[in-house]
Design a protein that fits this description.
Chain B: This is ER lumen protein-retaining receptor. The complex is a heterodimer. Chain A has no helix or strand. Chain A is mostly loops. Helices cover 70% and strands 0% of the residues of chain B. The longest helix of chain B has 27 residues. The chains are: A little secondary structure, B mainly alpha.
């Protein structure tokens, strides 16, 4: 399951 | 991926890789706070737990691996390397970790996006990154002046944070529902911590004098 908000930043 | 974020990631990469290479080359870590380096290693370990769980992009994965490898290598050099460890300024680098780790952990348990292990660890890593530079700034304060190793390191880190704020502003206006309160508030706090250091760094650079931080 993807984390609650898309965490695309490092 | 916008230019601000790419520039921010590259500057961040530069700060850790340049530090690691310099320590490896001159075999010295004078002026560098081991406490800050250990805190950064914890930041990356706590934030990149899902490194192998879900794949974001090749860029994302490679950068995470580089950050983890370089931050842990720096800690290894400063603690284990027979020559480098002797140049570590132990008696001045006395900032106690727990004063930073515990409040960040408590805050992460209280304020997070979802009360799951991964989300709490992510929030913990965000809060920790905001204050991880404190031992380094305290060490610079104590040793009064700063050789270019630590100066460049803090300078690149500050630049990375400033670029990330520009990245968030850009994404806020270009992507609907791009709202990340946790990262934004912690990021602003972190950047403010650098602000006063920058003031002294730039004024000393302009007057071309050795950087003297006020006591």
């Amino acid at each position: 399951d993807a984390p609650s908000t898309k965490k695309d930043e490092l | 991926m916008n230019l601000f974020r790419l520039a921010g990631d590259m500057t961040h990469l530069l700060s850790v890789v340049v530090l690691l290479l310099k320590i490896h080359t001159i075999k010295s870590c004078a002026g560098i706070s081991l406490k800050t380096q250990e805190l950064y290693a914890i930041v990356f370990a706590a934030r990149y737990l899902d490194l192998f769980v879900h794949f974001m992009s090749l860029y994302n994965t490679i950068m995470k691996l580089v950050f983890l490898a370089s931050s842990f290598s720096i800690v290894w050099y400063m603690r284990q390397h027979k020559i480098v460890r002797r140049t570590y300024d132990k008696e001045h680098d006395t900032f106690r970790h727990q004063f930073i780790l515990l409040p960040c952990l408590v805050l992460a348990l209280l304020i997070n996006e979802k009360f799951t292990f991964r989300e709490v660890m992510w929030a913990f890593s965000i809060y920790l990154e905001a204050v991880a530079i404190l031992p380094q700034l305290v060490l610079l304060q104590r040793t009064r002046n700063i050789d270019n190793l630590a100066g460049h390191y803090v300078f690149f880190l500050g630049a990375y944070r400033a670029l990330y704020i520009l990245n968030w502003i850009y994404r806020y206006f270009t992507e609907p529902h791009f709202v990340h309160w946790i990262s934004w508030i912690a990021g602003i706090v972190q950047t403010l911590l650098y602000a006063d250091f920058f003031y002294y760094y730039i004024t000393s650079w302009k007057n071309n004098v050795k950087l003297e931080l006020p006591a």
